[in-house]
Amino acid sequence: MLPPTALLPLMTPNTYNTLFSASPIAHVDNITAPVMILIDEDDLRVAPGQGIGFYHAIKGRGSGNATGTGTGDATGKETGTEKEKRKGIVEMLSFPGESHAVDGVEAARVSFEATRDWFKVFVEGC
User: Fold this and answer.
1) What percent of the chain lies above the pLDDT cut of 70?
2) With contact defined as beta carbons under 8 Å apart, do 37 and 111 qualify?
3) 6, 49, 103, 106: which has the fewest Cβ within 10 Å?
């Protein structure tokens, strides 16, 4: 028979801090690039609420909108002010009935086209 042992807590403050610091939400204030989030509503690996929370965290950090019209300075490099303007540029698409990988034909098409259009705006618009 095994001797009784004290139960260890599942989540210690040190463990929580380690996990939180590895999470994208911990670094949301540093995001200056436009972000597109694709959420699969039946995802068993990443809870949809995490993506939705990340979307709101980014959106709440800036006043940007999905225009992709950063102008930069005379050298063509983006200035700190331009980066600040781009904070908060985020778009989210949600796919009902899809799991971790977008497998449905229609959802895959929508996902591909939206991603293509997203890159067109921010590559051609810069």
Assistant:
1) 73
2) no
3) 6
